[in-house]
């Protein structure tokens, strides 16, 4: 094993050791979908509360390269529904975000920062 390989292995091990109460499988699962990765990036950048509409708008702009008003209406609705029913609840279940489903508000928790080092590796 080369020194570079050993160093990257050690840094991966160190990253997993720094995560409290989240298994490596859970980390990979949470980061496996592009929309969840974008949500995490947006929440880190915002340093505060976002609505699902805010998140949906940003995802559409990133994926389609257009303003929300010019996006495909069906895809806009599909992104909102998947955030509302799948992606945000999955992050909330692991304690990464607090989610008020009634108000469609998403707030990062301290655990969110545990995923940031993994995003930079993707």
SSE arrangement:
Blueprint: H1 3-17, H2 24-30, H3 34-46, E1 50-51, H4 52-64, H5 73-93, E2 97-100, E3 105-108, H6 116-119
Antiparallel strand pairs: 1-3, 2-3
Protein name: DUF7344 domain-containing protein
Domain DUF7344: 28-107
InterPro entries: DUF7344
Describe this structure in words.
The protein has 122 residues and is mainly α. The protein has one domain (3-119): Arc Repressor Mutant, subunit A. The chain is 60% helix and 8% strand. It contains six helices and three strands; from the N terminus they run αααβααββα. It has helices at 3-17, 24-30, 34-46, 52-64, 73-93, 116-119, and strands at residues 50-51, 97-100, 105-108. Strands 1-3-2 form a three-stranded antiparallel sheet. Helix 4 crosses helix 5 (73-93). The longest helix has 21 residues, at 73-93. It is globular and about 40 Å long.
């Amino acid at each position: 094993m080369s020194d570079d390989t050993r160093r990257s292995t050690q840094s991966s091990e160190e990253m997993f050791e720094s995560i409290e109460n989240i298994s490596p499988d859970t980390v990979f699962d949470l980061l496996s979908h592009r929309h969840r990765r974008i949500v995490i990036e947006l929440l880190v950048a915002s340093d505060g509360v976002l609505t699902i509409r805010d998140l949906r708008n940003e995802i559409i702009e990133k994926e389609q390269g257009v303003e929300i008003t010019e996006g495909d209406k069906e895809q806009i609705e599909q992104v909102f529904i998947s955030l509302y029913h799948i992606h945000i609840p999955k992050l909330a279940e692991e304690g990464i975000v607090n989610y008020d489903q009634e108000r469609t508000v998403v707030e990062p928790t301290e655990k969110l920062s545990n995923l940031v080092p993994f995003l930079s590796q993707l």
